[in-house]
């Protein structure tokens, strides 16, 4: 599954696909990015776990794929 730049991940299917494809994500709380760029390694109904071991609540945060600018900074 290919994700558009900056797609917000909402459903379990989104998280399954992101884990399988090892797509980079960013986590925002409001308009503030709270974690560095990372990948999702597991999820459940309430939370996700990032590759760095951080557990993030799904309901309190916005998890999305990288936008075009963020992708270019990762690839450098």
Summary of the model, kept short:
This protein has 76 residues and is α+β, with helices and mostly antiparallel strands. The chain has two helices and six strands. It has helices at residues 12-21, 68-74; strands at residues 24-29, 32-33, 38-43, 47-50, 55-57, 62-65.
How would you explain this protein's 3D organization?
- It contains 2 helices and 6 strands; from the N terminus they run H-E-E-E-E-E-E-H.
- With 76 residues, it is an alpha+beta fold.
- Strands 1, 2, 3, 4, 5 and 6 form a 6-stranded antiparallel β-sheet that branches.
- Strand 4 and strand 5 form a beta hairpin.
- The chain starts with 11 loop residues before the first helix and ends with a helix.
Ends: how far apart? 24 Å
Cα gyration radius (Å) = 11 Å
The average pLDDT value, as a whole number, equals 93
Which H/E pattern describes the elements?
A: HEEEEEEH
3D shape: globular
Poorly predicted runs: none
Topology diagram in text:
Blueprint: H1 12-21, E1 24-29, E2 32-33, E3 38-43, E4 47-50, E5 55-57, E6 62-65, H2 68-74
Antiparallel strand pairs: 1-2, 1-3, 1-6, 3-4, 4-5
